[in-house]
Amino acid sequence: MNWQSISFDWNQARAILATAEEGSLSAAARALGQTQPTLGRQVSALEQSLGVALFERIGRKLALTQTGLDLLDHFRAMGDAASKISLTASGQSQEIAGRVSITATSLVATYHLPPIMAKLRQRAPGIEVELNASNDVRDLMRREADIAIRHVRPDQPNLIAKLVDEARAYLYASKTFLDKAGRPNTPRELADFDFVGVDPNSTRVVTELNARGIPISAENLKMMTASGTVLLELVRAGIGISVLPHDICRTMPDMEIVLPDLDPIFFPVWLVTHRELHTSRRIRVVFDLLAEELGATSKVK
Fold first, then answer.
1. Is the dihedral of CA 180, 182, 187, 190 positive or negative?
2. End of a domain among 90, 116, 145?
3. What is the pLDDT of residues 80-110, one digit of tens each?
């Protein structure tokens, strides 16, 4: 390692990361328990040491420059590494105790979280988890949950959101359904097939599929549900076709991709929490494990 090339200290990097994630010097200073001038000097010192501008002021707000955006992932990796070092050195994984509430969509809660929760039990047996299958991100603002797993980035300024994955989805149907209804060869043929919709977002799904050259309408939606797990089981029962996540359906031998040559639909996986992440060690442990494991779920073919 070229030690001479490392010309800044961790406090400076932490100041950059906190400012980027909190959105302002004042908010970052509060989160880190420092004064704003001290934090500002650390940011300026790192910019001077690296010879680049990391932030620019737009009105009253600070925004990352393109260079800052390019380096942000590296700063986040440093933050994650520093957090893991602290956890290991203090041996706190065995000492942390208390309840952490997690809210996730029903599909994520059913198919992804159980093995992750098993790992959590091994790492931090003192943590009690309350798991709620829900699509409502507002429960974080009401403090009804500590961590949420969502497919849309929240816009509430007091929440911390981390993009952990870009998952894939395809049109899926049960093999029995396709054996009976036939297997379409072109997107246009799908106009004659039954679909299962996700209420209340069925209109958005129709619009998305229309944009991909699939000419379905609301009349194709023969059944709708707000539950992802119910949606999956309706499709498996042969009700119709729907957009479903590949990392789940690929493990089910009774399911088949419809028109596999179509490009997949990508959807984000956001890990969301409130600012107690900076002060609660038990929330930090759960958050970091979820980020690590959920980021690996779609690394499948």
1. negative
2. 90
3. 777 767 656 554 544 688 889 999 999 999 9
